[in-house]
Design goal:
The protein has 524 residues and is α+β, with helices and mostly antiparallel strands. It is built from 17 helices and 20 strands. Strands 9-10-11-15-14 form a five-stranded antiparallel β-sheet, covered by helices on one side. Strands 16-18-19 form a three-stranded antiparallel β-sheet. Helix 11 crosses helix 14.
Length: 524
């Protein structure tokens, strides 16, 4: 048994716990030493009998049921959940034993520093409301009624299935741990563009983080409303430069890099979901696990053409190989405009929701974000924000790439940051002309990858399982189909001809060519 009386055993034989590790982002709360469920608790054990090892994996291969959800809260449960195999390789015991935990009660019991920070003294001082509308998780705002509701935190809890597809597509709740780890790594690399973290409960797959108050809104909704953000694109470009550089071989030793690749490879379930919905299903006539949908009958012929285009499918297969087989840096993994919150102020940008985090090609993140800007661009005829606003969106694509490129080169040139094994040799530094050529070559490769991945993102958001609000909210089906057709044409061009684009400006011109067709058809 550990100091708190918890025990993990097989056939009543105690397992040796060699180390107990905690993750807690609030130093004051950590000092308070509340109940152990307030921490990220992962015991490590080392059974030496091979029979026990085989028995352990046979017993722990099935995930425990999650704490039931009732009325938006963690439901009542009076027993410890079954011991399960954590994705870190050891048994995990749920240490929360409260009889009727709601989110307010949970916070008051296990995160006393959060309760104090909200200006509350008990769970009765708190209120909660569900605000999540995503495909995967439950998201709540918890605040202190005694403080006039001004002080709030966000509580995010993973469901054991894909929310947009229902319980038929099960998902492990371990993704909450990976999201917490990704947010922690991103804050270390680029703190100004990542929300603060208050704590994490692995037992309940629950993260407590900073509340981003209005006028912060999801960037996707802002682009529908016609809001202009002065530094949004450059902020996200800098975020990508710092998070990708500082988690890659440019900043890490070979040993540290291998360890990280091995750890993030365990997020295989989320990677498999990406591989299905982005690279494979949109090009299939029948994808029962990820059912495709599109504006029908207007796009029926367009969908059939995608399925019949062998060159397009071959290019998608090559890009899938790049995604699976190229571990360069820690990716956000789902960097669309619904994973960015922004306000129309300089530096008013935060990147959220990195539960798809994994090691992969840098171009994946660098392509996902501009792809969603291009989708917002082609959707503008359905929102009547005017041609000038549509052009402003298109300009953000170039600003984003410029900020990423400049930020990455600056980190490369900084000996304090560039300490890894890639192109760094203090004993025998490369001549400046050679360095510049290698930078050009490397970033050219990132751009080519990014354009191909961007094309895939555009196509899957139009004919795949998960669409975007910019297009879905257009009520006139004829207008919507026209916008979507323009997006499909841009996406196909990017997938098949990524190598042929000399610059981001050429991509913008292709978008203007297809997007302009919609405005010439009588839509503003």
């Amino acid at each position: 048994p550990d100091a708190h009386g918890s025990e993990a055993s097989i056939r009543r034989r105690p397992l040796r716990v060699s180390q107990t590790r905690f993750r807690f982002s609030d130093a004051a709360a950590a000092a308070s030493r509340g109940p152990p469920a307030a921490y990220h608790w992962t015991p490590r054990w080392e059974p030496k009998n091979p029979v026990l090892i085989l028995l352990f994996f046979s017993v722990t291969r099935h995930r425990p049921p999650p704490p039931p959800i009732q009325n938006g809260f963690l439901g009542p449960h009076e027993r410890t959940l079954p011991t399960s195999c954590s994705c870190r390789g050891g048994p995990r015991t749920d240490l929360v034993r409260s009889a009727n935990p709601s989110h307010p009660l949970f916070l008051s019991t296990h995160f006393p520093a959060v309760l104090s920070g909200l200006g509350a003294t008990s769970a009765g001082d708190l209120f909660t409301s569900e605000v999540g509308d995503g495909n995967l998780n439950l998201v709540f705002i918890v605040g202190a009624a005694t403080a006039g509701g001004q002080n709030r935190v966000v509580v995010k809890q993973a469901l054991p299935y894909l929310r947009c597809l229902g319980e038929g597509w099960g998902l492990g709740r371990e993704r909450a741990m990976f999201e917490f780890e990704a947010l922690s790594a991103q804050r270390k690399a680029c703190e100004e563009f990542v929300p603060g973290l208050h704590g994490f409960s692995e037992a309940h797959s629950l993260i407590v983080m900073e509340y981003l108050a209005p006028p912060m809104v999801l960037l996707r909704k802002g682009l529908i409303s016609g809001i202009r953000y002065p530094t949004m694109a450059s902020d996200v470009g800098r975020f990508c430069a710092h998070t990708l550089f500082k988690t890659s071989g440019f900043a890490l030793s070979p040993t540290a890099f291998r360890h990280r690749v091995r750890f993030w490879s365990s997020n295989s379930e989320m990677c498999a979901l990406t591989e299905a919905v982005v690279f494979t299903a949109p090009f299939l006539a029948d994808a029962p696990r990820t059912p495709n949908r599109w504006t029908s009958p207007q796009l029926d012929a367009d969908k059939a053409a995608l399925e019949a285009d062998g060159a397009l499918r071959a290019a998608a297969a090559r890009l899938l190989g790049r995604f699976v087989g190229t571990a360069k840096a820690l990716l956000h993994g789902d960097l669309h405009t619904g994973s960015v919150m922004a306000k129309p102020e300089e530096g008013g940008t935060k990147v959220i929701d990195p539960e798809f985090g994994c090691y992969g090609p840098m171009g994946f993140d660098v392509g996902m974000f501009p792809a969603n800007l291009l989708l917002a661009f082609v959707a503008q005829p359905g929102h009547r924000n005017g041609g000038e606003y549509a052009e402003w969106i298109l300009q953000q694509v170039g600003i984003f790439w410029g900020a990423f490129e400049a930020g990455f080169v600056a980190l490369w040139d900084d000996p304090v940051e560039h300490t890894g094994f890639m192109f760094a040799s203090p004993e025998a530094p490369l001549p400046p002309p050679v360095v510049r050529e290698e930078q050009r070559r490397f970033l050219r490769g990132v751009l080519e990858d990014a354009l191909g991945f961007a094309g895939l993102e555009m196509v899957r958001r139009i004919v795949g399982v998960a669409h975007v609000e910019e297009l879905e909210s257009i009520e006139d089906e004829g207008v919507r189909a026209g916008c979507e057709r323009a997006g499909l044409e841009i996406g196909k061009r990017l997938i098949k001809s990524a190598v042929g684009f000399a610059s981001v400006e050429e991509v913008a011109q292709v978008a203007r060519d297809f997007g302009g067709t919609q405005r010439e058809s009588g839509h503003p």
